[in-house]
Write a structure and sequence with these properties.
Order of helices and strands: HHEEHEHEHEHHEHH
Largest sheet: 4 strands, parallel
Number of strands: 6
Number of helices: 9
CATH superfamily: Uracil-DNA glycosylase-like domain
Radius of gyration: 16 Å
Strand order of the largest sheet: 4-2-5-6
Structural class: alpha/beta
Helix content: 40-55%
Shape: globular
Strand content: 5-15%
CATH class: Alpha Beta
Length: about 210
């Protein structure tokens, strides 16, 4: 089930939901449940993918906000049935970043669209979401690297640097098809960013 767009399959979604209380991801699941209670069910906050590293992760990828496909699958996942998620899968594999050492999240963790179209995050969204990002960082004791994907995510670079001065922070373009397909060289730009992230991550083994 670890394939691009595999969460379009109801069986795959059911298997992921059955695993959200596994030891490595349970604190993150509790974090999401608390956010859902605080914000309300209408905000559509997805879970972390249990196939990723959970609290063992040393690399956090941050995008802007969950899209409709993430709300439908109930996961922030590289396996969601959309082209942005697929690009994350392929770029990570090509750069040699094992998903088991990563988690994916958003600087605004709730859905900010209308159901038909997502709108860009604004300063009010980012300000309201900032405390949850601080809470998340406390749940990732092995955190070494944060990768900010897109201009909106990059707005978090300064507060992250102040909050987590020992963490390496990278900014890269958003891996959406709007960027990747705009010019032939854009994918190479993203891949180079992912490779730079891979090159500075600490040594890691399957048993880590």
């Amino acid at each position: 089930m670890d394939e691009p767009k595999s969460l379009r399959c109801s069986k795959a979604r059911a298997q992921r939901l059955a695993a959200i209380d596994a030891c490595h991801v349970a604190p993150l699941t509790d974090f999401v449940r608390a956010l859902r209670t605080q914000m309300g069910a209408e905000y559509g906050i997805p879970y972390f993918d249990p196939l990723d590293g959970g609290t063992r992760a040393d690399c956090l990828f941050l995008l802007e906000a969950p899209g409709a496909k993430a709300v439908a699958s109930e996961f922030i996942s590289r396996d969601n049935p959309d082209e942005t998620a697929k690009n994350v899968v392929l770029l990570s594999k090509e750069a040699g970043i094992d998903r088991r050492r990563t988690v994916l999240w958003n600087v605004v963790p709730w859905y900010i669209g209308s159901g038909k179209k997502i709108r860009p995050a604004n300063s009010r969204d980012l300000g309201a979401a900032a405390p949850s990002l601080i809470e998340l960082a406390a749940l990732l004791p092995a955190l070494h690297t944060i990768v900010l994907l897109g201009k909106k995510a990059a707005t978090a670079s300064r507060p992250i640097a102040q909050l987590l001065p020992a963490v390496q922070v990278f900014s890269a373009p958003h891996p959406s098809p709007l960027f990747v397909n705009r010019r032939p060289e854009n994918r190479a730009i993203l891949l180079q960013c992912f490779q730079q992230v891979a090159d500075q991550l600490p040594m890691w083994s399957d048993g880590a």
